[in-house]
Amino acid sequence: MKQTYFNSSILFTCLAFIVGDIANAQEKTKYLNAEQSDPIKMGWMVGSPPPADRIPRFDDGSFFQFPALRWSVAHMRQFMPTINVSRGLGSSSPLETNIKSDIDKIKFTPLGEKKSITWEESLQKVYADGVIIMHHGKIVYEKYLGALTVDGQHAAMSVTKSFTGTLGISLVQEGLIDPTKLVSEYIPELQNSAFGDATVRQVMDMTTALQFSEDYADPNAEIWKFSAAGNPLPKPKNYDGPKTYYEYLPTVKKKGTHGEAFGYKTVNSDVLGWIIARVTGKTIAEVLSEKIWKKLGTDQDAYYSVDAIGTPFAGGGYNLGLRDMARFGQLILNNGKAGDEQIIPKSAIDDIKKGGDKKAFAKANYTLLKGWSYRNMWWITNNANGAFCARGVHGQVIYIDPKADMVIVRFASNPVASNAANDPYSLPAYEAVAKYLIKAK
Amino acid sequence: MKQTYFNSSILFTCLAFIVGDIANAQEKTKYLNAEQSDPIKMGWMVGSPPPADRIPRFDDGSFFQFPALRWSVAHMRQFMPTINVSRGLGSSSPLETNIKSDIDKIKFTPLGEKKSITWEESLQKVYADGVIIMHHGKIVYEKYLGALTVDGQHAAMSVTKSFTGTLGISLVQEGLIDPTKLVSEYIPELQNSAFGDATVRQVMDMTTALQFSEDYADPNAEIWKFSAAGNPLPKPKNYDGPKTYYEYLPTVKKKGTHGEAFGYKTVNSDVLGWIIARVTGKTIAEVLSEKIWKKLGTDQDAYYSVDAIGTPFAGGGYNLGLRDMARFGQLILNNGKAGDEQIIPKSAIDDIKKGGDKKAFAKANYTLLKGWSYRNMWWITNNANGAFCARGVHGQVIYIDPKADMVIVRFASNPVASNAANDPYSLPAYEAVAKYLIKAK
């Protein structure tokens, strides 16, 4: 059965890419560098028709193989059905600028290396597609690379989870969700799954104990079934597994004791998305539109990928413009206020900032993230500046540094999915920029 | 082979719906009326998950069966991959209003009937999803029904063709396309097809002589192969037909002599779209964005459905907001000017207005469209007011009346695809409103 599944030309496409590290097996491959793999220079999708070897495809998964992936992350809607997150009509909120051209020259030493490099050089290392740095609420740095333009949209990958978590904690503060309750009180369908006796809080902080492997090298890993379930393409005739996210989630089995250890499992975000949909009676796309996107003065509509019955992928399917991601990061930094309007309850942001259980986090053994924790689907660095962030594979990030009054947002298309590949060139870079901005005032 | 194709659960979905009259066979069925079939009251896609009988699906074609179709036309991107038509960033152009509430009470006699009805009643007859009437450049009437909202998008169906035609004649006036040349001079791939010895002008006015039946009752009709080719879903293993629009078009065979008779065949629009893509080196989505959408002060991005290699469907795949369609109609009425900017050459609009060959048109035997003609993919009424229009199945329309200085735009979801079902309640209604507005000044 597993073999059948893998042989299916239809399902082998998978949405797996969105949540994990499909490139793991290839990590030792020598990849083209950022300049060599520039998606515009490579000429993806140019011509009528484009040359056969310049057409990334969804059905065979080639759209997400490097270097085609560099084009695809800026054009996800061209491969799959999507649901709109409307900004409504009317003007966007102006984004003031105060460009500091010195930022490109800021030097830092990548983790595990001895020679320092510049911020500008680091963008090549992480295959950045676009970066904005906000300081005191103004754009001090803005750059577009790869296939991204100022009016384009890019896959946020697992940064999506932090949007889901932010909606979740907002609804908690509004009294619609009680995080101490069991998940099964909201979603009876999950009664007999691993989530049945987990609290909503455990789901929000990913301390649920789940039998759920995201190891792509293992053909029996649960992530494959999850991806197949979420794939919007028609299932092959011999396919007898779950056909949607909502059919898959009740099949997740428990492994261990909830609440003891942080375990980064995408399905938690989809369960939280389900709870949000259930208590509001709306899709998370509508909830995000109404609660945030229409109030934030965004420039552009955004969108989620969806499964075969139109369920937005709460764990990794969000796509948005870079400036709008900067506005969102600034909203979080501003404790939920955009202009004069309190869009998200301040108490929700406080709850994110206070962080999660450090001991539980430590059990997950992230070599580069010592002392961090995870709360409401945000990563809390617990560094001296109180920085916290949203992180997605292939280098997507929203990095918020309250002490430096700084937000960094970045889209990227690193051939290696795992952030372990980006962090050495990112985490010390963010701290160096923060230091520079604190001095610069 | 034909049978195999029809049995395929994957391909039987088809995009056929977009261009023709899939409901033809059912025309004598008694449908739910507009109120009974209200897509919001019917509760499509509400719930997590929605009830199984309230989930329209693409793969089995149910999304385009009435009454689900009433929801689907306002949510096409949730069923298929799409390509964005960016409005860029920045503010939209204001749409001034001067609401005339009397319009709802305007009476007219439907074609072939004896009793008059009101404008308001006519909206129910045509299953309108949204209507805007512009007079002297201001909104005098605006209404949303069905599943459409002011910030939503709706399928334009064959109104798409008039966008393609407008781009085509604009490029003619700019000198990029010579309409007297043979199609094969631009697209050598079409050399051996029916289009090989047709002129671009014949394609633009649909006076090509094609073996291309859009009769859905006939399983051998070419429209089925065209739809299968354009379907973005993976093709079944035993499928050996064309897999994209660009693979299909060269297979179209000639039947008769070009230039003699009007024949409304969607493939002409896709050939023109191909020519536009070839001479500009861009997709028509990019061309439309750059030439019109970014300059028109639109409220919203728009989008096209695409085939398996991302080709926008120039014959019927456009989706846009109602207010933006009103802005486009006003642009045409204003001879290509939006505000102070000449966006489209006036000569291009003049060329549309002058109309096509009436004798060639008459040969197509449209009972309700006596004396009309077709030019640059617009329908020219040749009535006393010089009105002309864009028309799409299920009731989509842009109706431009220069004498009354009026534009009517409408989205609809009539269970019957053919405009022959809408025209009796539409054409005399437009004329009655024009008469009222001319008096009202």
Keywords:
Diverse_Enzym_Activities (chains A, B); 15 helices; globular; 441 residues; alpha+beta; Beta-lactam/transpept-like (chains A, B); Beta-lactam-related (chains A, B); Beta-lactamase family protein (chains A, B); homodimer
What does this structure look like?
- The structure is a homodimer of 441-residue chains.
- Chain A is an alpha+beta fold and 441 residues long.
- Chain A has helices spanning 2-7, 39-42, 69-72, 119-125, 159-173, 183-186, 200-204, 222-230, 245-248, 266-280, 284-293, 322-333, 346-353, 358-362, 423-440; strands at residues 82-85, 107-108, 117-118, 128-135, 138-144, 154-155, 210-211, 253-254, 302-305, 318-320, 337-338, 341-342, 373-375, 378-380, 388-392, 396-401, 406-412.
- In chain A, the strands form five sheets. A seven-stranded antiparallel β-sheet of chain A has the order 5-4-17-16-15-14-13, with helices on both faces. The first copy, chain A, has a four-stranded antiparallel β-sheet with strand order 1-9-10-6. The first copy, chain A, has a two-stranded antiparallel ribbon with strand order 2-3.
- Chain A is globular.
- The N and C termini of chain A lie far apart (61 Å).
- Mean pLDDT of chain A is 93; it is low at 1-27.
- Chains A and B meet through strand 1 and helix 10 of A and strand 1 and helix 10 of B.
- Chains A, B: Residues 129-416 form the Beta-lactamase-related domain.
